[in-house]
Amino acid sequence: MITLFGSGPNFGLPDASPFVTKAETLLRMSKLPFEKAPMSFSKAPKGKIPYIEDDGELLGDSTFIRWHLEKKYGVDFDKGLTSEQRATAWAFEKMAEDHLYWAVVHVRWMDEANFNRGPREFFKAAPAVIRPLVVAMVRRRVSKSLHGHGMGRHSPKEIIELGSHSLQAIADYLGSRLFFMGTEPTGADATIFAFVVSAMCPVFKSPLQEAAVSHDNLRHFVGRMIARFYPELGELAGCKAAA
Q: Would you state the pLDDT for residue 89?
């Protein structure tokens, strides 16, 4: 049995982390039996989530988890795709993970109102006397990570513009297709779904969220992914599974 470790469902999403949502979606696509468990950063092989345990082996990073499923279990997430389509899928996945993601992080962690709506909940387990210090320390780390990446060096308005541009590119490429690469879900759909639905999350109010839900085809795409792989979630942010 494969065990997927993450932070758990939150904000109406499969997991608070889009990377965990990506890994879980891949596992659901694979139809392999798996279970979910709360993560422990001290046990995470790369100090991050997601990670899995499979036959006693710990493996971190959503992309390496995917490759593990492909190599060990013979799952072909990109069945039927040409080499050119696989290259395009990889480029869009990395844009979502390494660009759009950081705009989402900024919206959640650096906007005070959104921080109070979401990430502040993560610190409830900390003793009240030290909680403010822990919150401040972790937010400084997130801010430092944003700055190191480069996204955090821009103004909030510029970050929204950059994130919205990525969403526009995803919407333009998706077009009228049912799924990102065609009529059936492939590996790219797990990634695009995870990061687009995170941007759409109605808990976090921002122009980025407004930009995400403004694309009818993205909302319908998210609706189709939820209907097929997360029927227990129901409808999210007006994302109906339109044909």
A: 98
